[in-house]
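User: Second chain of the day. Same drill as before.
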Amino acid sequence: MDPEDQLRNLDVSDSMSKTCEVIADALEHVECTGADKAMTTLDLIEQKIQEAEEYFWRPLDNPEIYERISKVFQGVGQNERCERYLCKMREHEANIW
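Assistant: Same format as last time:
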């Protein structure tokens, strides 16, 4: 199944680990395809991240996702979106300690 289709069909309430896995796969697809060509996938990734955070009442278990998506947004010049995920990554790191 295409990573975008997996993402579209993802039910975040199934599990946090599956959610992180599907999002990471979709991000890999975006990084390989080029973010400028995969903006709809990026929008869907953002939607699923938000759904997961709201459902589980916490950040994703995999902070690397925040780092990767921030780099993708930085690469296409969307600094506001980039900064949003850098902040989430820092919040996640702060919660560990």
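The chain has five helices and no strands.

User: Great, on to the next one.
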